[in-house]
Structures are given as structure tokens and as C-alpha cells.
Amino acid sequence: MIDAVALFLRTPEGSGILIGLLTVWPFWRIFLRAGLKPWWSLLVFLPLIGIAAVLAALCLQRWPVVRPGGVAHPQGASPALRHQLTTAGVPAPTRE
To answer: CB 8: neighbour CB atoms within 10 A?
Structure first.
């Protein structure tokens, strides 16, 4: 069984699946922290254009955790960034 898995991972399809599995989780986390739907990270599995499609999705979409001026919302940020923003005097966003 282990020999069959090792043999499969040496094929282009097997190595592509392995690389895809190793890159989906970090992209999933990035999309979550950006306030976007993490399902975009599954585009990694598209042959030849997967990672470029994921990076394009990250670059071209408006991130809900970022204000129009480019400052992150304290509520959507990580605790460390939230602390930095509040100590720097960045006010919390108000709901209109």
C-alpha cells in the first residue's frame, strides 16, 4: 500500500494533488482573515492556472476587513493587529 502511494506521488498527477493539498490550507486561512469566502482557495487544484487564479482572487476582490481608506477594521483583524490599531488611535468602524 505504501509503495503504491509513493509510486503515485512520483507521477505528475500525484505531485499536483500533493502540492494542491499543501497550499490549500494556507490560502484558506488567508481568505478567512481577509474576510472573503475561503472556498476560493480550492482553485489551487485547477491545472496550470490554479495558484495564479487564487492570487488573482485575493488581489482583485475588495477585502471586507479593510476600510475604503486602506485601514483594517479592528473587529475583523487579528488580536495583535487590533491592539496596534487601537493604540495608534484608529477608531472602531461605526455602523451606518
So the answer is: 13
